[in-house]
Every structure is written in C-alpha cells, then in structure tokens.
Amino acid sequence: MKEIADILIAYQKALKEKKKSALATVVKVEGSSYRRPGARMLITDDGMLTGAISGGCLEGDALRKALSAIHQQETKLVSYDTTDEDDAKFGIQLGCNGVVHILFEPILPEQEINPITILKAVQQRRENAVLVTFFSLENQQQLGTRILYRPEQLVSSLPANEQILADTALLLEEKTSDFKEYEINGYLTSAFLEFICPPISLIIAGAGNDAQPLSEIADRLGWEVTVVDGRPTHATNLRFPKATRVLVSKPDQFLNHISIDDRTAFVLMTHNYNYDVDLLGRLIATDAAYIGTLGPKRKLIRMLDELNMNTVKNQTRVHGPIGLDIGAETAEEIAISIIAEIKSIFSGASAQFLKQKNAPIHVHDIKGN
Fold first, then answer.
1. Residue 239: count of CB within 10 angstroms of its CB
2. Of 31, 225, 251, 369, which has the highest C-beta tally within 10 A?
3. Residue 41: which of 83, 17, 69 has the closest Cα?
C-alpha cells in the first residue's frame, strides 16, 4: 500500500507540473525475481521514478519502455528473460534466474477511469479489495489496470462481466490473488486478480522517547500510526510528526478513539504500570489481531494475574516481551525488533533466518504463481 500511496503523491506532483507519466506494473513472474506481481512504479517523461519493479536492474530499461508508451499513448507488455545467460543483451545484467512480465500503461488524465483513478479508489476505504489488471503474453491486446472490486464499491472501465465479478468476489473472501483468462473483445486475455489489504494500523500506547523511532519506522513502511498517552506534555504532534494521529487519553477512554479491524496492532509501552494493566484488560476483550507489551515476561504475568486473565490462551495471545530476539538495546534497535515481529505475524511468516528456509523466500499468496 505504501508504494501505491507514494505513486499517487508523485502523480499529483507530475500533473501539477504538466508532466506526462506511465505506470509500470509487474503482472507475472516465472521463476525468481526481486519483486513479485503487483509491484508498481510511476515513470514521468523527465525520468523521475517512484516505486520499484526490481532491485534496480530493470529500472533503466523500464524508463525507455515507459517513455515509448507515453509518446505512443499505447499500453505495452515487456518480458525480461533473466534465465538467459546472455542477459547482457538487455544491457542490464539481471542475473535473477526468472522471467518478469511488466506492463507499461500511459496515464491519460482526460480519461474518467484510468490506472491512477483506480489506484486512488484503493485508498478511499480501509477495506480489502481486489484489483484486476489485464495483459496478453501474445501481445494481442493490453487492456491494463481496469477494475477495482469491493462488495460495495466497483470501479471499472470495462462493461460488466459476471464471471470476472464472481472471481473477484471469491478471491476477496479467500484473501488471495490469482491469474485468470477471459474472452474480451474477441481475444483471450490474461488477468492478474490482486488481493490488496489495508496497511497495518499501529496503535502505540505511550509517548515516551522510545516510542518515537517506533512511530518513524512504521511510517516509513506505510503503516497508519496512532500514538496515545495520558500526558499532554508527551502526546504532541511536535514529538511525533510522522504519526497519523496523536491523542491524549486515559485508559477508560482509549478505545473510544480507536477503530479496530483485522489489521490493527497494539503496542503497550507507557512505562506506567497501572495504565498498562487497565488498558491490557480492555484490549484482551477486543478482537485486536496483535497485542504486545514492553517489559519482561514476569510483568505480563503479574498484569494478567491482577486482571484474573492469566490463562494459557492469553499468555499466547499477548506478545510479552514484545519483539524478536535480535539483541536489541537502544530505542531504535528495539523499534526494529517490534516492527519485525508485527510484520511477521501479519504476514504469517516464521521470522527465521532466510538461509534456513527451504521454501522460496517470497510468501506465495497467489494461486496461479
């Protein structure tokens, strides 16, 4: 989601400066690649790049392809075969051992529904969605980014298609992505149906100095950050300029200001034992997907005892001490540890060393890939 947010900001700037632009999207990958399907990059006609479609090896050639799409006002699909040992013929020295298919779409502001307006619709609501991008490996027709689907929101530049809507509804329910084929305009066209979820909403209870790097790192990741503390001297926008919201609240009013969904994480780091105990009891009673407490395990056990909630279920549910064991000492290192644990929980990842992982590095949440 952060990539989409950055692209939308860059596009508005380009539009204001009367620059033309194109959207590059990784629509399919065969084998290994630095980025997976759904990676995006905005390219302007003066060479500005926002987002990423690779680790940097494709961007140079992508700029040339994007400029061609802009000048010809034509959507193009380009395939990079990095399994070829003679990848130097691209002039980019890939060395990734995979085939990457990238779609280049010129953005035409005069079109009521274009790829940018569809990406804007993704951000309009904090809800899951399915984004549909059409492409053809045979270069028969390149329709591009055409549909955003939610149960109560459909943005589409194509005529209604019951099969596409049924497929998107199913993937939204299953929370996964897939590749499909449809007959459109007399051609068999491939489609990447991409499940997109909202960014993590990180609620930091505590506005001490150690909460500042946590807020800043989460913001860099595109998370929505809310900082809450009972002390008006600490909970200020000046101290937390990167936070989406900064609130002053006591524990009994805390949840009145917070919306909780399945992408919400709470971190308790007020350094006020009574505040933490009160708030922890209220959070356990919610459906919050993640609750973490700063401090030793014995502190968590003591709090659960006082709340009469010391069960195996609650000890398992609450992450205390919070974070991964990386030997963190400073506030910045602790923040990295906390962020990494939260990310691993929401991604369903093991947080083990990658060199010990026998499966592919990327989490495969795409049925057909």
1. 18
2. 225
3. 69
Taking CA 212 as the corner, what is the angle to CA 210 and CA 217, rounded to the nearest 5 degrees? 110
Structure tokens, 158:
């194509």
Per-residue tokens: 74: 């034509």
pLDDT at site 367: 67
Look up residue 126 and give its two tokens.
Answer: 């904090």
Model confidence pLDDT, tens digit, residues 234-257: 999 999 999 999 999 999 999 999
Tell me the backbone φ, ψ of residue 146, rounded to 5 degrees.
Answer: -130, -25
Model pLDDT, residue 356:
83
* 99 token code pair: 């085939």
Closest CA to 267 of 312, 229, 298: 229
**Which pLDDT score, from 0 to 100, does residue 91 have?**
41
| pTM for the predicted model, two decimal places | 0.89
Q: Spell out where 222-330 has E strands.
A: 224-229, 245-248, 264-268, 290-293, 318-319
Contact between 320 and 284 under an 8 Å Cβ cutoff? The reply is: no
217-236 residue pLDDT tens: 999 999 999 999 999 999 99
Phi, psi of 160 (to 5 degrees): -55, 135
The H-assigned helical ranges of the chain are 2-16, 59-72, 115-124, 162-174, 211-220, 251-254, 273-284, 297-306, 312-317, 331-347
Can you tell me which residue has the tokens 């995006």? 40
